[in-house]
């Protein structure tokens, strides 16, 4: 949809409105070197004259669709997924609209290339693929410069969404040090692609605390601090300096913590969540999307949360985060305390079932079972399943093939439609593949996975007829972008439990499996922007209800609120450029929103797409 064809909205006066022209105070190569202003070969004849682009571009004025076709041909010519990932990174550096249009048009194909599993490969090779910096690199040995370094990225009104990682526990591949900047970048790509967060109003950050990855420490090309990870008081002071500086410099920004290590993720979230609008995707996002899949699966199997018996294999950040979201939902539905609700959840980790005899961290303690009542269950996942008879089994262990045929059949023995969710990433670390789970349960299992899998065919009809079952990808991207969008648009002062539960309900209500039990438990990535609107709406309504929304004049009618949300979602379309005088122009118009763009000019980039 072009900007000209977009109907006039009653909310086009809003600061984040996506209607009308874009003000531009730069011209020539400076314009072409600014990714969020550059249209490349699609600049109209009028724009070429008005902005001094004649002679800098080929003569033919092309459409965004033509550019996208050419970009897709270039993408397809790359030899493997990592090369395709690198190509997309280069394209993003040139032209944001074209980059996101290409992703949007080929989302199912490219999603795994810009995110897991290929982004994990890019992160592991960060120092070898590096061409130019993207994002803010903060140094634990230079904590006094944190505020200064962040301040280079804009004025208080310029940043809406910050993703920050310390690189310790990346996508199931562990400590990647400074390469963690790329997970912050990738998550922000998803917020734009899936929820329309304005890409020039985001900030990726890495907190470089060193690394315990010996391979990186021994690599003479490694770009991060060449030292062991800093822990303790110095680490905490560094994180706090980042949070306090970010809040002071960008008071409206929502902070998204990403891929912190097990010992820090929950602790940091618990510390700052009562004070600022923040979110940890590994703890809350994974929990929310998994709870949405569980709720859809229980609905298909005609059960309720109060009937739930949940076993989680893998009691790290993700596993405990899922347990917490499920526990809170059970407590709300049954009107009971969290400790009572936790009795319906069993956590299994390397030592076996977590009991009062197990050495536990703070987040695990509430789920520990009485050791005196757990005889026979401590040693293995199979023994727990045989004793508990759960109806839902979740894997967050990164132990490949942990869900054996015996375990899966034990799950199916006592429940008609077991919900089995092997969620570990990347694909090679899945606890089981959908084909095996469905084969071992005669097609009865309801399956969602942490990475994409093809549909599975089998003789599972009532008459033995072959049926194709689609497998949902239990990916956080169907929930965290919408949560962030809702929080940003209503300028939430905090992100509360009720706002998260509202987000889960928004996703679960759109489950395709509610209408067809051979359909996925969760909406697919091709529908994610519509899902994000629903999630954002529910989050905003919950925030308003709790008095946490600080934005004025938020519509209360659902249809009107949806329009209000959509009007402020960035879309990959070329809006006409409006020439304005540099004096008094906004930093956006003066191409100053990204420090790298304004300082380096990036003359080496290809600008003729």
Structure, explained:
The protein is α/β, with parallel strands linked by helices and 609 residues long. It folds into three domains: 22-93 and 579-600, Up-down Bundle (Hemocyanin, N-terminal domain), CATH 1.20.1370; 118-276, Rossmann fold; 284-474, Rossmann fold, CATH 3.40.50.720. The protein contains 24 helices and 16 strands. It has helices spanning 28-32, 45-50, 64-76, 81-92, 96-105, 107-114, 118-124, 126-129, 146-151, 181-195, 214-217, 232-249, 262-272, 281-300, 317-334, 338-341, 381-388, 405-413, 434-440, 480-489, 497-508, 528-546, 558-567, 595-600; strands at residues 22-24, 136-139, 161-165, 202-208, 254-257, 278-280, 310-313, 345-349, 352-353, 392-395, 419-422, 446-449, 456-458, 467-469, 472-473, 577-579. The chain has a seven-stranded mixed sheet, sandwiched between helices. A five-stranded parallel sheet has the order 2-4-3-5-6, sandwiched between helices. Strands 1-16 form a two-stranded parallel sheet. Helix 18 links the parallel strand 10 (392-395) and strand 11 (419-422). Helix 10 (181-195) crosses helix 20 (480-489), helix 21 runs antiparallel to helix 22 and helix 22 packs across helix 23. The longest helix has 20 residues, at 281-300. It is globular, with a radius of gyration of 24 Å. Mean pLDDT is 92; it is low at 1-5 and 595-609.
């Amino acid at each position: 949809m072009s900007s000209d064809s977009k109907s006039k909205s009653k909310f086009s006066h809003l600061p984040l409105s996506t209607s009308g022209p874009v003000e531009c105070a730069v011209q020539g190569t400076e314009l072409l070197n600014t990714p969020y202003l550059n249209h490349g070969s699609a600049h109209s004849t009028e724009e070429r004259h008005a902005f001094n682009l004649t002679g800098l571009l080929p003569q033919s004025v092309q459409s965004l669709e033509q550019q996208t076709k050419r970009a897709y041909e270039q993408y397809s010519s790359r030899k493997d997924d990592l090369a395709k990932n690198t190509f997309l990174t280069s394209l993003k550096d040139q032209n944001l609209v074209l980059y996101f249009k290409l992703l949007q048009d080929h989302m199912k194909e490219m999603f795994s290339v810009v995110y897991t599993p290929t982004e994990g490969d890019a992160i592991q090779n960060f120092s070898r693929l590096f061409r130019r910096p993207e994002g803010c690199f903060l140094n634990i040995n230079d904590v006094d410069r944190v505020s200064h370094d962040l301040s280079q990225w804009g004025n208080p009104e310029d940043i809406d969404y910050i993703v920050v990682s310390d690189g310790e526990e990346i996508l199931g591949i562990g400590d990647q040090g400074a390469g963690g900047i790329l997970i912050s970048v990738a998550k922000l790509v998803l917020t734009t692609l899936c929820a329309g967060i304005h890409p020039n109003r985001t900030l990726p950050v890495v907190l470089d605390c060193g690394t315990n990855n010996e391979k990186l420490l021994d690599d003479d090309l490694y770009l991060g601090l060449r030292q062991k990870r800093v822990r303790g008081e110095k680490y905490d002071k560094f994180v706090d300096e980042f949070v306090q500086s970010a809040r002071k410099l960008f008071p409206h920004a929502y902070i998204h913590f990403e891929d912190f290590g097990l010992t820090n993720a929950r602790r940091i979230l618990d510390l700052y969540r009562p004070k600022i609008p923040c979110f940890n995707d590994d703890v809350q996002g994974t929990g929310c999307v998994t709870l949405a899949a569980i709720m859809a699966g229980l609905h298909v199997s005609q059960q309720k949360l109060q009937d739930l018996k949940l076993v989680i294999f893998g009691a790290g950040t993700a596993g405990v985060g899922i347990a917490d979201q499920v526990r809170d939902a059970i407590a709300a539905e049954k009107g009971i305390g969290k400790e009572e609700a936790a009795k319906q959840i069993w956590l299994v980790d390397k030592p076996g079932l977590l009991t009062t005899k197990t050495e536990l961290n703070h987040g695990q303690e509430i789920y520990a079972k009485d050791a005196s009542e757990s005889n026979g269950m401590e040693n293995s996942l199979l023994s727990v399943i045989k004793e508990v008879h759960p109806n839902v089994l979740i894997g967050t262990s990164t132990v490949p093939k942990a869900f054996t045929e015996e375990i899966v059949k034990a799950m199916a023995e006592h429940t008609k439609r077991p919900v089995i969710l092997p969620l570990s990433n990347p694909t090679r670390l899945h606890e089981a593949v959908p084909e095996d789970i469905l084969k071992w349960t005669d097609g009865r299992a309801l399956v969602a996975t942490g990475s994409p899998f093809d549909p599975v065919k089998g003789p599972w009809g009532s008459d033995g007829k072959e049926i194709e079952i689609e497998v949902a990808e239990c990916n956080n991207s169907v929930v965290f972008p919408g949560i962030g969008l809702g929080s940003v648009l209503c300028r939430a002062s905090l992100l509360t439990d009720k706002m998260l539960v509202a987000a889960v309900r928004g996703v679960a209500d759109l489950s395709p499996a509610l209408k067809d039990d051979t359909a996925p438990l969760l909406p697919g990535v091709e529908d994610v922007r519509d899902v994000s609107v629903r999630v954002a709406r529910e989050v905003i309504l919950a925030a308003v209800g709790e008095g946490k929304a600080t934005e004025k004049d938020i519509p209360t009618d659902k249809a009107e609120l949806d329009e209000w949300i959509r009007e402020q979602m960035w879309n990959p379309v070329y809006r006409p450029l409006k020439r304005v005088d540099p004096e008094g122009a906004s930093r956006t118009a003066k191409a100053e929103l990204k420090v790298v763009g304004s300082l380096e000019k990036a003359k080496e980039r290809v600008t003729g797409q």
